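Reopening this ticket.

The earlier resolution said the output was attached, but the attachment link was broken on my side. Pasting everything inline this time so it's all in one place.
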Amino acid sequence: MKLTILKETSPGETRVAATPESVKKLVGLGHTVTIESGAGTVAGFPDKAFSDEGATIAKTAATALKGADVLLKVRGPSAAEAAKYPEGLTVIALMNPFAMGDVTDALNAKKLNALAMEFTPRITRAQSMDALSSQSNLAGYRAMIEGAQIYGRAMPMMMTAAGTVAPAKVFVMGAGVAGLQAIATARRLGGVVTATDVRPAAKDQVASLGANFIAVENDEFKEAETAGGYAKEMSDDYKKQQAELTAAHIAKQDIVITTALIPGRPAPVLVNEDMVKSMRPGSVIVDMAVAAGGNCPLSKPDEVVDVNGVKIAGFSNLPARLPADSSSLYAKNLLAFLPLITAEDGALNLDTDDEIVTAMLLTRGGETVNERLKS
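Inline output:
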């Protein structure tokens, strides 16, 4: 196959869909790799690093796309970009499938085959391909680092001749991949950490990292996880009980990190305005769900908002703040997936019943084929 990697065009996107390491392995598998000049520069991968591993460097995106079988991207294309792609091209990216809008029409108009890395099934065989997990892991780490920096005080307890510095109290809301990494990072920094989640399985995971678990543990809580491992949408009654429980707790916290996302839906509100006003001046909230509407209604994308001395940070693309590592992990996710759509002779093969491929395939040959987009 001829594989192409382009420079990302989304504002603030610093990642790239290949690294010199992944290019070396792709070329070793018999694929041809073409990279648009400058695609990896911001992530710390200059053109020469790619060419040294066998990639061809193209001066423009149009040149890179000539004769391409597969386009590997970090973020899905815009409708305008898709309209410029050669007909029949296969695009693999983080497509943001539930918010594609007119992009779907543009893909189908050019008979583009699109596969969403977000739809990688959460099964054992697909773990190495799970881009949501690889990127969320780094996002959770970075969220805690950003929170600690904005907080501006020491994280661990320090006992000195001049007095004792109390440890920072950190509350992580949502204990998925991102939340667990935020917990682990907060613990490494010396914070006193508590966490909450609506999924029962999260309780033991939180405890294993040395944090205390806080949640309304009723019958609904016991059934609050989907077969795919995601949190279910909770009832209004449960949300009310959980809000009452956490409101008093939040008032005593120094750093709150919110991570709650429900695929295909707006982010649930976890920290309302009254909760924010109950926090001490100097406290920090890091809203990791700001790109989906936010877990705090006062957060704004890519801004740090000050509300009565409480700083609310909304970083819409935390993995992009660690571009080298994020790109490396994402490139490995793609590398693990490609064999599933590669025929024995090395050509592209989408004629497969593999459950991973069928789950990820959005459009093919001018039609939308994914049932999750049809419903």
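Reporter confirms the inline version is readable. The CA atoms of residues 98 and 264 lie 5 Å apart. The mean pLDDT is 94.
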